[in-house]
Design a protein that fits this description.
This protein is mainly beta. It has one domain. The protein contains no helices and four strands. The strands form two sheets. It has a two-stranded antiparallel sheet with strand order 1-2. The protein has a two-stranded antiparallel ribbon with strand order 3-4. The radius of gyration is 12 Å and the shape is globular. The protein starts with 10 loop residues before the first strand and ends with a strand.
Length: 68
């Protein structure tokens, strides 16, 4: 994170996604601290759908395709 643009986080919650994420993870509460990072290992092939909780209503979401 750069520390600009407000507080962000990463959430992948299968029940709250349109479609269906194969993973569930959460980086914790939103933060605006410069230099903040979050790493999530993926051990199996699948689809990880995620969003930024504070900006979900404006469409800040994405997907990661994990291939074996």
């Amino acid at each position: 994170m750069t520390g600009r643009g407000g507080a962000h986080n990463v959430e992948a919650e299968p029940d709250g996604q349109i479609g269906g994420s194969d993973y569930e993870f959460n980086s914790g509460g939103p933060t605006a601290a410069s230099g903040t990072t979050y790493e999530q290992p993926f051990d199996d092939a699948g689809l990880a759908l995620y969003h930024c909780e504070p900006y979900l209503s404006v469409g800040m979401k994405g997907a990661i395709v994990i291939e074996s």
